[in-house]
Amino acid sequence: MTITQLKYVLAVAEHQNFTKAAETVFVTQPTLSMQIQKLEDELEAQIFDRSKKPIELTNIGHKIVNQARNIVNEANRIQDIVDQQKGFIGGEYKIGIIPTVMPTLLPMFLKTFTQKYPKVELRIEELNTSDIIKKLSDGHLDAAIAATPLMNDSLKERVLYYEPFVGYIPEIHSLSKKQYLETSDLDINDILILEDGHCYRESIFNLCKTSKRHAKENFQLKSGSFETLVKLSKEGLGMTLLPYLHTLDMTEDEKKRLRFFNEPSPAREISLIYHKSELKLQITTALYDLILSIIKGAIAFQDVKIISPLSKD
Amino acid sequence: MTITQLKYVLAVAEHQNFTKAAETVFVTQPTLSMQIQKLEDELEAQIFDRSKKPIELTNIGHKIVNQARNIVNEANRIQDIVDQQKGFIGGEYKIGIIPTVMPTLLPMFLKTFTQKYPKVELRIEELNTSDIIKKLSDGHLDAAIAATPLMNDSLKERVLYYEPFVGYIPEIHSLSKKQYLETSDLDINDILILEDGHCYRESIFNLCKTSKRHAKENFQLKSGSFETLVKLSKEGLGMTLLPYLHTLDMTEDEKKRLRFFNEPSPAREISLIYHKSELKLQITTALYDLILSIIKGAIAFQDVKIISPLSKD
DNA sequence: TAATTTTATTGCATAAATCTATTACAATGA
DNA sequence: TCATTGTAATAGATTTATGCAATAAAATTA
Fold first, then answer.
1. Cβ–Cβ below 8 Å for B78 and A86
2. What do you get for the CA distance between the two ends of chain B, in Å?
3. How far apart are alpha carbons A105 and A101 in whole angstroms?
4. Residue B194 bridge partners (DSSP)
5. What is the topology classification, in CATH, of domain B163-267?
6. What is the pLDDT of residues B33-80, one digit of tens each?
7. Fewer CB in a 10 Å sphere around the end CB: N or C, chain B?
8. Residue A131 and residue A147: Cα distance in Å, rounded?
9. Looking at the domain covering A89-162+268-306, what would its CATH class be?
10. Nucleotides in chain D near protein beta carbons (<7 Å)
């Protein structure tokens, strides 16, 4: 049994296809087939059921794959240990960020990070929360930034900041006269919400007192941006809620239409998330510390009420 | 990096000597040297400090060795998983037993075990507690039987039985008239104790109310057997304490000199111990279940007071 | 300093891994 | 039914890795 063989097994298990798996591990299909056969012979157990199309894991195969992931993870960690001991911060580092955080947070830390850690090759990807969980779990991401808590046992979270929600109230709106908003002011049928995986949207639903989850809506907004929301709001289609950081680069005119909540303001918790195996922890910690030091200047709210991104049905 | 290389590293780390390490992994010394050099090149880190005699681990080497042990353990577990899934109970299984348990317990289960699990190749070794802990930790033993609790985080214990201590009181002894003993009757200076690692002896010391740990003794008894103790006791050199199972095959005459304790009787806890990594757990569990079913017929005491094998200085 | 022990180096044989080319097999659709 | 397609298995050639024996080099001990 070799670590290489285990990596091959993981690739096939993931793609359910020998040919595709072979590509991802940069060998030819016969090579991969033979190595997997050798491992199966050695263990005297079938890992894959090749009669099914696409290929499936056998009962025992599932357990072997889980253990293989374990071993490969632990093996990867050896280089981590060496890097850490040497104080070396480098190598490829893949990070996922949810769409509603990406445009505000990334510009704040990206330049500083790449300057401070030039040997790290950052690969940044915009992903929704469920994809992030998937990719962190199977090792396709080293870390991610998303709304938390995720209540996922195999992931670790370190809170970066609490981002309050701010109301954008068009001039003609009834709430326009109020200086500060209350949670009880909100009516789900009157708020424009971004369709965004199941993350930001869920938060708002949980926030509304009058929340009938499947309230009738005149229209559905998919893959929109906050910019669009604000424009629709201006057209009188309702108020909207924006995460605080999105309000910072608004025009002065627009800012006049913002209404903050009375404390404790509803807020979302944004965290750096990574697998509990803590691979590449040096880089993760470096990233965490950097973002934290930057965000402290941008967000300074006292008392917030965290809205969980998870629906509680 | 290969699993083989990691095994070579572990061997050198253990023996602090390339030549001896090579023997234990059944390759020549040059082969082993080269593989370790290759690994060091790949990791760009020195694992061993070859300038020291005997060879020492570098700082980073220590961490690499720990992680290597992890990986090799996890790798071994794959065959375990396959065996378990198939219900196969077999392979080499190394077990250590403390001297004061060996002669009474081993005969009770050995024959039945080898008959029930003919494919398991049992390797039994008499070891004292500290050697057992060492060998369980570094993987040279799969399980052990010893007095517990050991308070060792990397080991797991499953209690097999509680074995009460029984007094052997020579006829001329003052306690001879009593039907049952009390813990308070015991005087450390009057009891013959077996020198036995630091396990059985410590138990007795903790038991005596009058325990001055470094009480003067007229003589010291090393590596004796209970048989010797009983004979010395008969000579009038004092009473002695025997674990219950050792009293079962005494002659009727000798049994007349036995005095049990009033309940709760002082007792030692005997457990099956194994590494928390739970390698070969199927066999361990099979062994545990078997011993438990056998011992139930032999020991049936209600209320006992467990004497810890650890000194509490 | 010589003898001994231990690790590193060299050259060669063998085993293993990988590649290319091809075959085999099953599912799909004309 | 028979190409077509997608996919895994097999065969043979090639490259790479692993291992051994012999020996050199370094360190230790007598």
1. no
2. 46
3. 6
4. none
5. D-Maltodextrin-Binding Protein; domain 2 (3.40.190)
6. 999 999 999 999 999 998 877 889 999 999 999 999 999 999 999 999
7. C
8. 13
9. alpha beta
10. 7-12, 18-23, 27-29
